[in-house]
Here is the input.
Amino acid sequence: MPNCQSKSMQPGKTGSELLEMYYHDVRSHLLEAAAAFDRFERAGLDPDQQPRLQKLRQVAAIVCDQKPNRAQRFLEALSDD
Here is the structure.
C-alpha cells in the first residue's frame, strides 16, 4: 500500500527554503505594484482626493511592516470599502 501520509505530516520548509521558493514571484508582484503606483502618479491622481488610492497605500504599508498577521490585516483593511 502506498504511503498516504498527509502533507501536514511532512516536515515544513525552512525560512531559507521558502524565500528561495517565493523570491521571484514576490519580487515580480512588488515590481508590478510599484509600477502601478508610478502610473497613478504620472496620471496626476491626488491621493488626498482618491480614497481608493489612499487605501492601496495603507495596505501596501502593511505588506512591508514587521508586525504579525499581515495577510489578515491587509484583507481586513480592504474589507472596510
Notes: The radius of gyration is 18 Å. The mean pLDDT is 90.
